[in-house]
Amino acid sequence: MKRVLVLAEGQTEERFIKDVLNEYFLPRGVTLIPKVATTKRVKQGPDFKGGITDYQKVKNDLRRLLGDTGVSCVTTFIDYYGLPGDFPGMPTRPSGSPQVRARHVEVEWERLISHPKFHAYLMIHEFEALLFARPEEICRAFHSPGILAELEGIRASFQTPEDINDDPQTAPSKRIIQVLPGYQKTVHGPMLTKRTGLDILRSECHHFSDWLGWLEGL
Asked: Which of 67, 92, 124, 192 has its CA 20 to 30 A from that of 172?
């Protein structure tokens, strides 16, 4: 069994890795172990976890994870949306699609870390993009068929769910909350992706699918 440490942005990503991804990868000989990013370290008591506030904290987390000689590799599951400007590659992002821009940051990040076991992955633009792979599942889960047209209209406005933008008012999670104020990220997000299924998520979200393909290659 190959062990892979995944530096995750928060509890939603942690739950998704445990409940959805490992159901797929464990039978294939790979176990993904999520490690939630540290936001603040304290002298006494548990550290504060969840959220990405600056690159140095992430770099420190990665240094600790890469120090584990018993793992096959270390990867990340962090939102591209709201990524701090001090991340490698952020100031030099080229013009082009979100996929091109995010991949540029990933490449520069890997170059700076310069460790053979490190593979960077950024979710474009955030976890909730995955939910737009099948909007009808959101409606079924909330017993709200009346919102389907609005959700499908959002999805139809973009080439892929990963293209749904990174504006603070119109990022994927903000769009869902506007339609469904009762949406709770850590509770509903992983559940909805499980209902949708990885095959559909991969067919709609190609950057995400490429990451899973890399994991399969292990």
From this structure: 92
Tokens representing residue 185 in the block: 């990220």
CATH number assigned to the domain with residue range 2-125+201-216, chosen from the 4 options 3.40.50, 3.30.70, 3.90.1150, 3.90.1530: 3.40.50
Residue 46 pLDDT exceeds 60: no
Q: Which two tokens stand for residue 111?
A: 């170059």
Strands 30-36 and 2-8: parallel
H/E stretch holding 78 reads: strand 73-79
One-letter amino acid at 166 equals D
Which amino acid, residue 61? D
Q: Of the candidates 77, 178, 167, 165, which has an alpha carbon nearest to the alpha carbon of residue 125?
A: 165
Closest CA to 214 of 75, 19, 9: 75
Predicted TM-score (pTM) of the model is 0.93
Q: Which DSSP state fits 127?
A: G
Residues 20-41 as b or e (16 or more Cβ within 10 Å = b): bbbebbeeeebebbbbbbbeee
Provide CB contacts within 8 A for 22, sequence distance 6+.
Answer: 31, 32
Could you tell me the CA-to-CA distances from 33 to 19, 40, 64, 216 in Å, in that order? Answer: 11, 21, 14, 15
CA–CA dist 134, 76 (Å, integer): 24
